[in-house]
Design goal:
This protein is of the alpha/beta class and 258 residues long. Helices cover 32% and strands 21% of the residues. It has a seven-stranded mixed β-sheet, with helices on both faces.
Length: 258
């Protein structure tokens, strides 16, 4: 079940949400390789990070799942948001250089099909950057934040899912090491807790961040591969085969073919 767009905007407008945004930005910065004039697409709720990492991009689009809802973005200029279905993106093949997923993969009905669709629209050298709740972290256990909804992942589960969809994980990071407490006295120490968590207990981070590269070739066992072709039977005039056999039999018995 997707988080509602109203709830997402309200969370990131709060003090706890702004701290979470800053922590995820630091994690993304450690795996984000700058590519000038790239075509960047965000899927889910990615507006805070598209504004930061899309400054040098040729074009930037914000795709928001239909179950989540959409808002107009940016505030000025042409709108760059679209309401989409994750398994049927309105893009042609190999048309995007990088896709950023935040509040997306953990809510999809079929994560593998979503990644297959992302593989389709990515260019041969394309990358996908994914932020998901960590199954071992505290943030996945509390529902007062958007990270407490959906399907959390462990690092092994996420890596296996990417490999099944023909992606190779290239870089990992983590964020949200401070507790998801809305109390002010706890949020005052978020910097200390974030630095300490990154050093001493990264396995319990609130989110996992991975940058993966599109893999072009992979051997697929024939027994596990289902053909998508539609076979149409070729029809021939009735009696052709029978007439051929009758003619041959008559010739063998010395009858006049005429």
């Amino acid at each position: 079940m997707h988080s509602d767009i109203v709830d997402l905007r309200s969370f990131y407008a709060s003090t706890l949400g702004r701290l979470a945004e800053h922590s995820i930005t630091m994690a993304l910065s450690s795996v984000w390789v700058s590519v000038p004039n790239e075509r960047l697409v965000g899927l889910g709720y990615t507006l805070p990070w598209l504004e930061r990492f899309g400054a040098d991009a040729e074009r930037v689009f914000a795709f928001m799942p239909a179950a989540q809802g959409a808002v107009v973005w940016p505030a000025t200029g042409p709108t760059s948001t679209a309401l989409v279905f994750e398994e049927d993106l309105p893009l042609v093949d190999a048309s995007v250089d990088r896709m950023l997923l935040v509040h997306s993969l953990e809510h999809t009905e079929n994560p593998r099909e979503t990644l297959n669709e992302i593989w389709r629209v990515l260019s041969p050298a394309g990358h996908v950057v994914i932020v998901v709740p960590n199954r071992r972290g505290m943030w996945a256990r509390f529902e007062h934040t958007p990270f407490g909804t959906g399907r959390p992942y462990s690092r092994g589960q996420l890596a296996e899912l990417l490999r099944e969809a023909n992606f190779t994980p290239a870089a990992w990071a983590d964020g949200l090491h401070f507790p998801p407490s809305p109390r002010r006295f706890m949020m005052r120490f978020h910097n200390v807790l974030e630095r300490g968590g990154r050093r001493f207990w990264p396995i319990f981070s609130g989110v996992l961040v991975v940058a993966a590269q599109k893999r072009l070739y992979q051997g697929v066992p024939a027994a596990q591969r289902a053909s998508r072709r539609v076979f149409v039977p070729a029809l021939s005039p009735q009696g052709v085969t029978g007439l051929g056999r009758v003619g041959n039999r008559s010739t063998r018995h010395g009858a006049d073919p005429a």
